[in-house]
Amino acid sequence: MNDTSKPRHGPVAPPSPHKILRSAIGAFIGLSLVGYIAQLMLNDESLTFEIGAFGATAVLLYAAPLSPYAQPWNVLVGHVTSALVGVAVFRLFGANWFSAALAVTLAIAAMQLTSSIHPPGGASALIAVLGAPDLHQLGFSYAFFPVGLGALVMIAVALVSNNIANPRRWPEYWLATTPIARLHPQRIPTTPPNRDPLP
Fold this sequence. Notes:
The chain is an all-alpha fold. The chain is built from seven helices and no strands.
Protein backbone atom coordinates (compact mmCIF):
# COMPACT_ATOMS: atom_id res chain seq x y z
CA MET A 1 0.00 0.00 0.00
CA ASN A 2 1.33 3.44 -0.91
CA ASP A 3 1.77 5.88 1.94
CA THR A 4 0.05 9.05 0.75
CA SER A 5 0.48 10.83 4.09
CA LYS A 6 4.10 11.75 3.35
CA PRO A 7 4.72 14.92 1.35
CA ARG A 8 6.00 14.37 -2.18
CA HIS A 9 8.44 16.78 -3.69
CA GLY A 10 8.90 17.24 -7.40
CA PRO A 11 11.60 19.16 -9.25
CA VAL A 12 12.34 22.63 -7.90
CA ALA A 13 11.10 25.38 -10.21
CA PRO A 14 13.83 27.47 -11.88
CA PRO A 15 14.64 30.60 -9.90
CA SER A 16 13.96 34.08 -11.22
CA PRO A 17 16.56 35.84 -13.39
CA HIS A 18 17.23 38.15 -10.44
CA LYS A 19 18.13 35.20 -8.20
CA ILE A 20 20.29 33.62 -10.89
CA LEU A 21 22.19 36.88 -11.39
CA ARG A 22 22.69 37.31 -7.64
CA SER A 23 24.02 33.75 -7.35
CA ALA A 24 26.35 34.22 -10.32
CA ILE A 25 27.80 37.48 -9.03
CA GLY A 26 28.33 36.04 -5.55
CA ALA A 27 30.01 32.91 -6.89
CA PHE A 28 32.31 34.86 -9.21
CA ILE A 29 33.44 37.32 -6.54
CA GLY A 30 33.81 34.65 -3.85
CA LEU A 31 35.81 32.24 -6.01
CA SER A 32 37.93 35.04 -7.48
CA LEU A 33 38.98 36.20 -4.02
CA VAL A 34 39.67 32.68 -2.78
CA GLY A 35 41.64 31.88 -5.92
CA TYR A 36 43.75 35.03 -5.57
CA ILE A 37 44.50 34.34 -1.92
CA ALA A 38 45.41 30.71 -2.57
CA GLN A 39 47.59 31.66 -5.56
CA LEU A 40 49.82 33.68 -3.26
CA MET A 41 51.27 30.50 -1.74
CA LEU A 42 50.19 27.50 -3.81
CA ASN A 43 51.39 26.32 -7.18
CA ASP A 44 48.95 25.81 -10.05
CA GLU A 45 48.40 22.11 -9.28
CA SER A 46 47.47 22.74 -5.65
CA LEU A 47 45.38 25.74 -6.62
CA THR A 48 43.35 23.55 -8.97
CA PHE A 49 42.56 21.15 -6.13
CA GLU A 50 41.71 23.94 -3.69
CA ILE A 51 39.40 25.80 -6.06
CA GLY A 52 37.64 22.51 -6.74
CA ALA A 53 36.65 22.21 -3.10
CA PHE A 54 35.45 25.80 -2.88
CA GLY A 55 33.64 25.50 -6.19
CA ALA A 56 31.30 23.05 -4.52
CA THR A 57 30.95 25.42 -1.56
CA ALA A 58 29.99 28.21 -3.96
CA VAL A 59 27.08 26.17 -5.31
CA LEU A 60 25.67 25.74 -1.81
CA LEU A 61 26.38 29.25 -0.53
CA TYR A 62 25.15 31.23 -3.51
CA ALA A 63 22.62 28.96 -5.24
CA ALA A 64 21.05 27.16 -2.24
CA PRO A 65 21.75 29.43 0.75
CA LEU A 66 18.80 28.14 2.78
CA SER A 67 20.24 24.63 2.82
CA PRO A 68 21.37 23.59 6.31
CA TYR A 69 24.71 22.71 4.70
CA ALA A 70 25.17 26.29 3.48
CA GLN A 71 25.14 28.01 6.87
CA PRO A 72 28.29 29.74 8.18
CA TRP A 73 28.92 27.17 10.92
CA ASN A 74 28.79 24.34 8.44
CA VAL A 75 30.96 26.06 5.85
CA LEU A 76 33.71 27.18 8.22
CA VAL A 77 33.78 24.36 10.77
CA GLY A 78 33.09 21.69 8.15
CA HIS A 79 36.01 22.76 5.98
CA VAL A 80 38.50 23.38 8.81
CA THR A 81 37.66 20.21 10.73
CA SER A 82 37.89 18.08 7.60
CA ALA A 83 41.19 19.67 6.60
CA LEU A 84 42.68 18.97 10.04
CA VAL A 85 41.58 15.35 9.79
CA GLY A 86 43.09 15.07 6.32
CA VAL A 87 46.45 16.45 7.42
CA ALA A 88 46.54 14.10 10.41
CA VAL A 89 45.82 11.08 8.23
CA PHE A 90 48.48 12.12 5.72
CA ARG A 91 51.04 12.51 8.51
CA LEU A 92 50.26 9.01 9.78
CA PHE A 93 49.84 7.05 6.55
CA GLY A 94 51.16 9.15 3.67
CA ALA A 95 49.41 9.63 0.34
CA ASN A 96 47.71 6.48 -0.97
CA TRP A 97 44.27 5.03 -1.63
CA PHE A 98 43.87 3.92 2.00
CA SER A 99 44.69 7.38 3.35
CA ALA A 100 42.31 9.03 0.91
CA ALA A 101 39.42 6.80 1.93
CA LEU A 102 40.23 7.07 5.64
CA ALA A 103 40.54 10.86 5.56
CA VAL A 104 37.12 11.37 3.99
CA THR A 105 35.54 8.75 6.27
CA LEU A 106 36.91 10.37 9.42
CA ALA A 107 36.06 13.83 8.13
CA ILE A 108 32.44 12.77 7.73
CA ALA A 109 32.41 11.49 11.31
CA ALA A 110 34.04 14.69 12.57
CA MET A 111 31.51 16.88 10.77
CA GLN A 112 28.67 14.83 12.20
CA LEU A 113 30.08 15.13 15.73
CA THR A 114 30.40 18.90 15.39
CA SER A 115 27.06 19.34 13.58
CA SER A 116 28.98 20.95 10.74
CA ILE A 117 28.16 18.73 7.76
CA HIS A 118 29.29 20.53 4.63
CA PRO A 119 29.75 18.13 1.68
CA PRO A 120 32.68 20.05 0.15
CA GLY A 121 34.52 19.49 3.43
CA GLY A 122 35.17 15.96 2.24
CA ALA A 123 37.19 17.47 -0.60
CA SER A 124 39.29 19.48 1.85
CA ALA A 125 40.17 16.27 3.66
CA LEU A 126 40.96 14.50 0.39
CA ILE A 127 43.13 17.36 -0.88
CA ALA A 128 45.16 17.28 2.35
CA VAL A 129 46.12 13.71 1.47
CA LEU A 130 46.43 13.80 -2.33
CA GLY A 131 47.56 17.40 -2.86
CA ALA A 132 50.91 18.48 -4.29
CA PRO A 133 54.11 18.57 -2.16
CA ASP A 134 53.91 22.33 -1.54
CA LEU A 135 50.49 21.81 -0.03
CA HIS A 136 51.78 18.99 2.19
CA GLN A 137 54.54 21.30 3.41
CA LEU A 138 51.92 23.57 4.95
CA GLY A 139 51.13 20.91 7.53
CA PHE A 140 48.25 21.69 9.86
CA SER A 141 48.37 25.35 8.87
CA TYR A 142 46.69 24.23 5.61
CA ALA A 143 43.44 23.94 7.59
CA PHE A 144 43.54 27.63 8.47
CA PHE A 145 45.24 29.08 5.39
CA PRO A 146 44.07 28.70 2.70
CA VAL A 147 41.09 26.56 3.84
CA GLY A 148 39.81 28.49 6.87
CA LEU A 149 40.52 31.90 5.38
CA GLY A 150 38.92 30.86 2.11
CA ALA A 151 35.78 29.74 3.93
CA LEU A 152 35.59 33.06 5.78
CA VAL A 153 35.94 34.99 2.52
CA MET A 154 33.17 32.96 0.89
CA ILE A 155 30.91 33.57 3.90
CA ALA A 156 31.64 37.31 3.87
CA VAL A 157 30.72 37.55 0.19
CA ALA A 158 27.56 35.52 0.83
CA LEU A 159 26.52 37.94 3.58
CA VAL A 160 26.43 40.68 0.96
CA SER A 161 25.22 38.85 -2.14
CA ASN A 162 22.53 36.79 -0.39
CA ASN A 163 21.03 39.78 1.42
CA ILE A 164 20.99 42.44 -1.31
CA ALA A 165 17.43 43.19 -2.48
CA ASN A 166 16.23 40.05 -0.77
CA PRO A 167 13.32 39.97 1.72
CA ARG A 168 14.78 36.86 3.36
CA ARG A 169 17.79 37.09 5.60
CA TRP A 170 20.86 34.91 5.38
CA PRO A 171 22.15 33.04 7.32
CA GLU A 172 19.39 30.95 8.83
CA TYR A 173 21.57 30.57 11.95
CA TRP A 174 25.16 31.24 12.99
CA LEU A 175 25.88 28.48 15.47
CA ALA A 176 24.75 24.88 15.21
CA THR A 177 24.25 22.54 18.14
CA THR A 178 27.01 20.08 18.93
CA PRO A 179 26.59 16.79 20.82
CA ILE A 180 27.07 18.65 24.13
CA ALA A 181 24.34 21.17 23.29
CA ARG A 182 21.88 18.44 22.35
CA LEU A 183 20.67 18.46 25.95
CA HIS A 184 18.31 21.08 24.52
CA PRO A 185 17.03 19.46 21.30
CA GLN A 186 14.41 22.13 20.74
CA ARG A 187 17.22 24.55 19.91
CA ILE A 188 18.48 22.51 16.98
CA PRO A 189 18.04 24.61 13.81
CA THR A 190 16.06 22.87 11.11
CA THR A 191 14.95 23.67 7.60
CA PRO A 192 11.49 22.41 6.63
CA PRO A 193 11.74 19.95 3.72
CA ASN A 194 9.23 21.88 1.61
CA ARG A 195 11.11 25.16 1.80
CA ASP A 196 12.30 26.73 -1.43
CA PRO A 197 16.12 26.35 -1.34
CA LEU A 198 16.53 29.70 -3.04
CA PRO A 199 15.68 32.89 -1.13
